[in-house]
Amino acid sequence: MAPPLSHPQVPLAMDPDLNAPHSMGTTITGVTYDGGVVLGADSRTTTGIYAANLDVSFSLILHIRVGVYVANRASDKITPLTDNILFVRTLLETGGLIVGGWDKYEGGQIYSVPLGGTILRQPFAIGGSGSTYLYAFFDQAWKEGMSKDEAEKFMVKAVSLAMARDGASGGVVRTVIINAELLLGRFSSTVARRARASQLIA
Amino acid sequence: MESAAVSSHDSTIQEIGFERTLYPYVMGTSVLGMKYKDGVLLAADLGGSYGSTLRYKSVERIKPIGKHSLLGASGEISDFQEILRYLDELILYDNMWDDGNSLGPKEVHNYLNRLMYNRRNKFNPLWNSLVLGGVKNGQKYLGMVGMIGTHFEDNHVATGFGNHLARPILRDEWNEDMSFEEAVKLLEKCLRVLLYRDRSSINKFQIAKITEEGVTIFPPYSLKTFWGFSAFKNPTKGAEGSW
After folding, report:
1. CA–CA separation, A69 and A60 (whole Å)
2. What is the pLDDT of residues B151-210, one digit of tens each?
3. Chain B residues near residue A16 by CB distance under 8 angstroms
4. Would you call B26 an interface residue with chain A, using a CB distance cutoff of 8 Å?
């Protein structure tokens, strides 16, 4: 059994159980709609690769203009990604990312970053262990040009379906909407509120 | 050599300062290439597999390089994206000389060979098989570079499964003076076999053409398949116990 990784640059506890199944313990989704993106995730964390006490809202990575923000439970505030770059790097090595955001040049965009580091822009993306149950659902039910409300409802439905079947996903469904408006200040309070709310869930 | 900790839950060996790739994750399957009368054709499907899951279905695995070349890649997609970044820089610097010269397919092929071999020697390969095709000054060029630095030129090449399924067809039926239509038909014949027999292939292909005039990458399309074999009609006949 190899010794635990003690890479000096990675501050988070990374004690890999080499016998644990390679699961990602969650369901994450991202959908573009006409005017922005909706990101969604469940709230359950499982032990293994994801440290159990990290707020699962880290699975929502929020892209604002040039800065990338991560909802960070440890400090319970929205901090620029540069502070969290190692955090994200850890995520990159243990599970896929979905990056979503809006800018004035291309509108709403979703980028999938699976294990390995491939970057693929997609109209929608799914990830995590629960996503296996969603491939067929999205193939059939997703369509272009959804409105903001349709997209959010669709997300909630998708994540709920995954939670119903995936033992490693559960709890509540969290969604975040990012569009031009949300960039103008309402954004951080929404996320901070969600980050705080998550503290109530053990 | 510093001590290394191997973690099996991700695919990297982490030594102090850097990492190496051990396993590929998101992979593209075969790429086919063949010369024809006016230039070179490349073909590949648009799939990115994640193990046995056909996870991504719009991955463009053939890209133009500079004015004279086309690059197709199978293997780990993130490494292909990295190679494109290297080549982008190479072509940029070439353009900045602004001297009327431009890197042709032979030069790009050589660069890729050096790149792949160098990485292989550091035990940190770019997990790809590359097909490089191009035309410069009327000369057609088609070559391949593998992840360990193996490289060669030929009239027709294939990566991955294509080596086993497509090349025999190409060896039999290829000739020097194929027209564009004949060449596409031959490629489609090979692609169809790969579609039937390669589990990682999807029915969404792109054909790319390069001639002296330039590059054309055609929009994705799908092939018709045939499943009306008489042996499929009564599958349970003679199979005791099946239903």
Report:
1. 9
2. 999 999 999 999 999 999 999 999 999 999 999 999 999 999 999 999 999 999 999 999
3. 7-9
4. yes
A28's enclosing H/E stretch is strand A28-33
Q: How confident is the model at residue A142 (pLDDT cuts 50, 70, 90)?
A: very high
- Dist. CA B143–CA A47, nearest whole Å: 48
Active site residue A26: yes
Among B34, B1, B23, which Cα is nearest to B156's? Answer: B34
* Residues 65-84 (A) with a CB less than 8 A from some CB of B: none
CA terminus-to-terminus distance, chain B:
61
Q: Would you place residue B21 in the very low, low, confident or very high pLDDT band (cuts 50, 70, 90)? A: low
pTM of the entire predicted model? 0.76
What contacts A8, CB < 8 A, 6 or more positions away?
B16
More confident residue, A110 or A200: A110
Contact: A93, B59; criterion CB under 8 Å: no
Distance CA B58, CA B220 (A): 9
For residue A1, what is the DSSP state?
A: -
